[in-house]
Amino acid sequence: MIDREEVIRIAALARLDLSEEEIEKYQRDLTDFLTACAQLKKVDVSQLRATSHAVTIKPRLRQDRVGPSLKQTDVLSGGADVQDGFFRVPRIVEGQG
Amino acid sequence: MKKLAYLLQSKQVSSIELVEKYLAQIEASEKKLNALITVDKKGALQAAREADQRWKKGENRSPWDGIPIVLKDNISTRGMRTTCASKILADYVPLYDASVVTLLRKQGLPILGKANLDEFAMGSSTEYSSFGVTVNPFDGNRVAGGSSGGSAAAVAAGETPWALGTDTGGSIRQPAAFCGVVGLKPTYGRVSRYGVVALAPSLDQVGPLAKTVEDAAILFSILAGTDPKDATSANAQEFNVPNWDDALIKGLKIGIPKEFFGEGLHPEVEEAVRRALQILEEEGALLVPLSLSTNVYAIDTYLTIVTAEASSSLARYDGVRYGQRKEGADSNTMFAKTRGEGFGAEVKRRIMLGTYVLGAGHYEDFYEQAQKVRTLIKDDLQSAWEKADLIITPTTPTTAFKIGEKRNPLEMYLSDLYTAIANLGGIPALSLPCGKDSRSLPIGLQIMANHFQEELMFQAAYFLEKKLLGRA
Amino acid sequence: MSRKYDTVIGLEIHVALLTESKFLCSCSTEFGAPPNSHCCPICLGLPGSLPAINAKAVEYAVIAGSALNCVINPFSKFDRKNYFYPDLPKAYQITQDAYPICGPGYLDYYVQDKLERTKIVRIHLEEEAGKLIHSGESIIDSEYSLVDYNRAGIPLIEIVTAPDITAPEQARLFLEQLRLVMNYIQVSDTKMEEGSLRCDANISLKPKGSPVLGTKVEIKNLNSFRALERALEFEKERQREVLEQGGQIEQESRTWDERAGKTMTMRSKADAPDYRFFPDPNLPPLNLDPVWIENLKKSLPELPLERLHRLKDQDRLSHYEAAFLVNYPDFGDLFEKVKVTFPEPKAIVNLLMGDYARLAREHGHLNPVRLGELLQLLADEVINKNQGKDILEELFKTEEDSPAEIVEKRGWRMLSDAAQLRKVVEGILADNPDLVGRFRNGENKLFGFFIGQVMRATEGKADPEVVNNLLREELEGGRN
Q1: Which of C21, C23, C25, C84 is the best mutation test for B, with the most CBs of B within 10 A?
Q2: Domain boundaries along the sequence of chain A
Q3: Could you read off the pLDDT tens digit of each residue along chain B, which spans 472 residues?
Q4: How large is the C-alpha radius of gyration of chain B?
């Protein structure tokens, strides 16, 4: 069983505000999942390289040319809190003021 | 589709009439189905008017100019909201078109609307949508499948002649099977992912859903090709609709992996698939029994990779630049509240799992291990191509299940049992309707091929479709 | 303190690359545009957008690595570094973790007259974050912050050194040399005030001679060379005091407060983030052509140290003079150009380091041909030093006339005719009989006065050497 502290730590890392019920639920789900995945750990892969891309693709690099940017008003149009051409966020350092 | 194109060309029907017809069908069936999140009546009619103008002047952009389409709502459309069926993006309006949307617009296809899905394409039933479940057109108590359930149901119900979906572990093929339509997951890299909201970028592909094999092939021919905006898009891999040729079936080696016909497979599904195989054999195809023993790891490997990649891909929804925001005293609190409230239960579950498997002390055991097992699975598939030209399996173990039937997430994940392997291997795979069960629910058959062998796959599918369903 | 402890310093340097467009999208990298006006779906991290690597950024990283004597890895990968911060649009940074583009290398540089070597561990490519403007004095007392994503996505290289630096001053000198190298190879404008060169430092103390490293502390927010040296000095003293009082150094990140002149705790090791690095599935690994890499290496320009040694060995300049030309490459380049028409290195460097330097900083550089002509006039003794200075000032006003033409027009040609000058000298001596008397009685310092009088009488044109000889002849002839 994954312990509760671990679930809280992961939720904090993933910036997910969870309710008490959710913490309990994900504690169970995580445990179930990890139990199910346990068989993977037994597979002998010592001779294998990791696949991080489905097919081998030659990288295509882009020429260094400036293209059009979006208009500032468009850029800001989706922001929940904007001011003077900027996006605004609440205090970054916690627990002060 | 060729018929529609002919009618447009010969001026027997206008694009406006077509679009109006589909809008009427949407009006009639949406209350029951809930296949669409957004219907863009005004935009579609405007695009149709423009298409008709072009036809009038003989300046049509393509034979399909004016034939409308529906897109899964995780494909960015400039100026038309793209929700991913998530609360967090309920009002999000993209500032740009996905590359596939640009291609569709270039061909003159009006966009009727955006189809429902499991939130951020995480699911196999469209039950995990914050816009309500999509109902199977064949049975009002059953799911349409997922995550491209809205796209599949819309095509099946005649709300659109064709649709785009996305497929990360079976999300085009499984709903196609449940709704009795054709669905293709192309070779990884053959269709641009630019503008398609990521679930797991190493597995995601965009593909067509349509009523017939030929329509799916036509739509695929519009989509396939290199896109400089997608670094993982393959070089020079256009696709042209082939001349259909039954003679190709003779001598074709069809691999039958025993692991896909074992425990858990519903007998009626097996029977339908075996019947199709028999038809191929009668035409001179060679049925080659083989083994894809690594498929037993496919689901766990798939889940580990999907959750890991998704946990990172979905980190950007922090309430700063776009999307809904829930205020907090400081930035971290604001992020956590925004995400805690904005995401649904399944999305949060996968983010939690993904964050865990990538975390310090777990990476080697879980994520890297899964990537290595993925190599094993890829190798397994590669050796299969030494014995077979195509592989045929059922698309799903069962036909459409009941809404609310699968409450356990692990049980839900098993819906991808036969389909995830194609995403892990990056190979193309197609689901084709191959009959119905005793409840009159559609059964899907899956054809897989080696990388970039879509054409051969389409030839076999076309042949089967003709024989099975008497379509010409 | 250095009697009891060794100081161990390692640096992590971020250098913004001078590409036209950003690393992973085609937005402009121009500095100082209105906020959020150089943004697109990619650098804003809009859903569905994908990165596309700028070839120039890769090229610049290879050039930088080559200039720092690094192994260039044809195969390298891009990873995601996952963390939440308002300036990070995707909540992950695209960087290189396990397989960086450059492996081990080194940089040689002088600390006073001694050549030192600092090893480079690796160099990797990554994307820059956006810029935060805090509502208050600092991030800590700010109620809110404003975010500008213009900077987000500019290509950076991060250069990581081995912990082989042993003193704060050495760290500064290393960084100065590194900056010079980056300027020479023209991959960055390295403006610390604009953030295109940034440095974090790791510092620890260990008992003198001990092979075991002490606990290191990371210092961030070092925005100038001076800040780097001061922060390290402060931290060295702080750690020494802790150790001498029998305390333990906490592994932590500290920030440098410029105004307070001290480092402060930012984050302890317990809060160290879990970045969950993994290969970015959107970017295939780089597979660079080894021939292309070789060609870039071959086409490297002369580097600062090579230049320094050449100036000392071939041009016979002093270390000080050579260092001046190396550290101010514009002067160094001008030096080379003047040398083409006037091959006297010492004379050129004397001119450049004198009044010229002051005037050039104000007005910009002069045409090297004109400077050669001026030096030639001085060498031929057509003009004297004072006239040389006047001509220089004249040239900074207009370079239309050559120094020779200025001499002609102003009649500034040096007066060397002995007979003519003797008359002037005789006149001045005759006008000042009492002073002549005092000189002859031993008041030697009056010699200068007579020289001054002659120069004044000839409007500064007299050849000082001739005047000197004449005066000695006339005065000392009659000395008691």
Answers
A1: C84
A2: 1-42
A3: 888 999 999 999 999 999 999 999 999 999 999 999 999 999 999 999 999 999 999 999 999 999 999 999 999 999 999 999 999 999 999 999 999 999 999 999 999 999 999 999 999 999 999 999 999 999 999 999 999 999 999 999 999 999 999 999 999 999 999 999 999 999 999 999 999 999 999 999 999 999 999 999 999 999 999 999 999 999 878 999 999 999 999 999 999 999 999 888 999 999 999 999 999 999 999 999 999 999 999 999 999 999 999 999 999 999 999 999 999 999 999 999 999 999 999 999 999 999 999 998 899 999 999 999 999 999 999 999 999 999 999 999 999 999 999 878 778 888 899 999 999 999 999 999 999 999 999 999 999 999 999 999 999 999 999 999 764 3
A4: 21
Active site residue B312: no
Count of beta carbons in the 10 Å neighbourhood of residue C442: 9
- pTM value? 0.91
C438 is in which domain, residue-wise? 418-477
Nearest-Cα distance to chain B for A69, in Å, is 11
**Alpha-carbon distance B277 to B463, whole Å?**
12
3-state secondary structure of B139: strand
Q: State the nearest Cα–Cα gap between C134 and chain B, in angstroms.
A: 13
Query: CA of B149 to nearest chain A CA: how many angstroms apart?
Result: 25
Chain A hits for C27, CB-CB cut-off 8 Å, are 66-67, 69
Query: In this structure, are C346 and C467 located in the same domain?
Result: no
State the best of B324, B352, B365, B375 to mutate against chain A, taking most chain A CBs within 10 Å.
Answer: B352
Give which of B231, B198, B98, B197 is closest to C54, Cα–Cα. B231
Which residue in B234, B336, B378 is closest to A15 by CB distance?
B336
**ipTM for this prediction:** 0.95
Q: Is B147 a catalytic residue?
A: yes
Retrieve residue B52's tokens.
């008709």
* Backbone phi and psi for residue C230, each to the nearest 5 degrees, phi listed first: -65, -45
Residues 6+ apart with CB under 8 A from B293: B259, B380
| Chain B positions in Cβ-Cβ contact with residue C90 (cut-off 8 Å) | 315-316
Interface of B with C in 85-124 (CB under 8 A): 89, 92, 94-96, 98
Provide, as residue numbers in chain C, all residues whose Cβ is less than 8 Å from the Cβ of B199: none
Closest partner residue to C283 (CB to CB) among B231, B311, B331 is B231
CA distances from C375 to B80, B183, C316, C407, C466 (A): 72, 83, 18, 13, 20
Of 3.30.450.40, 2.60.40.10, 3.90.1300.10, 3.40.50.12780, which CATH number belongs to B1-472? 3.90.1300.10
